[in-house]
Amino acid sequence: MGSSMQTGLLLVLGTIVSFVGWFGFYPDDGQTGAVERAQAIMADASTAKVGILLGYGGMLAVFIGVLNITRSMAMAGGAGSFYGNVATVLGMAMVAGLVMNLGLEYGIAEATSAAGGVTLAGVSLAMEGAFQLAMGVLVLMLGTGIALAKNFHVGAAALAVIAGGILLLGSFVDADTLGFAGWIGFMLTNLVLGGLSIRAKSA
């Protein structure tokens, strides 16, 4: 199986698995505080664990797929190499952050006291704020790099730039809908890039 096919499958399947985890099993809607999140997860820990593993596992697959693309752009040495380098560094940091947040959320489900669960939820929420900002920059760099390198359809580049811009704006404006819209845009970008990667391998 070639690298394009592997990248495509990571992006497409990772996105699908993540959606199933967050919307099918994860008990919190992402728009609550630390107390509410801890209560929701601890109230149904078994289901929450499934959602956490699927949600974060899917996102890890997505970012590994994105890293495959950004590393290729960086190594190509063309017009998009600088943006590929920046996106690669951010992507590696975000993979580490995802693993840490997975551990924090799993710790909430395993917490033996409400106070312990709330503390872990507070740290998790704080990390998510930084995560959204970094993801916005990454996706913006990804879209700009694709537009310059012309390694994917220009529509994919435009979608990434729009999604990255919304994520960045949502980091500075107190509006949960902006962050959610940016995240959905990022997921759509992954599906498009994944589909194009699979099609390129099949051609």
Structure in words:
- The longest helix has 36 residues, at 114-149.
- The mean pLDDT is 92.
- Helix 1 runs antiparallel to helix 3, helix 2 packs across helix 5 (114-149) and helix 3 (45-76) runs antiparallel to helix 4.
- With 203 residues, the chain is mainly α.
- The chain contains seven helices and no strands.
Strand coverage percent: under 5%
H-E string:
HHHHHHH
Q: What structural category arises from helix and sheet content?
A: mainly alpha
Radius of gyration: 17 Å
- Helical proportion, percent range: over 70%
What is the helix tally?
7
General form = elongated
How many extended strands?
0
Q: Name the poorly predicted regions.
A: none
Number of spatially distinct domains: 1
Largest sheet: none
Distance between the amino and carboxyl termini: 14 Å
Instruction: Tell me, rounded to a whole number, the average pLDDT.
Output: 92
